[in-house]
């Protein structure tokens, strides 16, 4: 099981800003250079900036599958409710959303009381219920 937690990028007025679009594109490009990720499904919060982040990220990674808007990812549902819905959608998924919901989900998935909060356009990967790696804007190549 691989779960990629991706925080939505920087927004202005509800939509991604120019800087936000640049950050998520750069993240997708960098990830593609590091490995050739493949996903069963991409799931996103219905918040417009999250949907735009998911679409740009998918484009950079040549992901042509479904990007599913999952209202339960909007931030108020507890991770105990969200997790079974996510795991039912595949063994390698991308979850796009915002804080504090993403770090709460990460903590639940790894069975710890906390998980480091993600910055805008950061991806943190959980493999087999353990934190594996993360990639943040500005991280060295």
Description:
Strands 5-4-6-1-7-8 form a 6-stranded mixed beta sheet, sandwiched between helices. Helix 3 crosses helix 4. A hairpin with a 2-residue loop joins strand 2 and strand 3. The longest helix is centred in the N-terminal third of the chain and has 17 residues. The chain is built from 4 helices and 8 strands; from the N terminus they run βββαβαβαβαββ. The chain is an alpha/beta fold.
The end-to-end distance, rounded to whole angstroms, is 26 Å
Structural class: alpha/beta
Task: Bin the strand percentage.
Answer: 15-25%
Mean pLDDT: 93
- The strand line-up of the biggest sheet is 5-4-6-1-7-8
Query: Based on DSSP secondary structure assignment, what is the total number of beta strands?
Result: 8
């Amino acid at each position: 099981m691989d779960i990629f937690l991706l925080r939505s990028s920087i927004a202005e007025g509800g939509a991604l800003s120019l800087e936000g679009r640049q950050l998520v594109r750069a993240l997708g490009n960098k990830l593609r250079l590091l490995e050739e990720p493949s996903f069963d499904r991409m799931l996103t919060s219905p918040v417009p900036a999250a949907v735009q982040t998911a679409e740009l990220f998918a484009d950079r990674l040549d992901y042509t599958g479904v990007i599913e808007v999952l209202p339960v990812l909007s931030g108020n549902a507890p991770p105990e409710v969200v997790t079974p819905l996510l795991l039912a959608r595949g063994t390698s998924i991308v979850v796009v959303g915002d804080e504090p919901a993403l770090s709460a989900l990460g903590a639940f998935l790894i069975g710890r009381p906390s998980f480091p909060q993600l910055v805008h356009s950061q991806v943190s990967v959980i493999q087999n219920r353990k934190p594996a790696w993360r990639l943040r804007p500005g991280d060295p190549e």
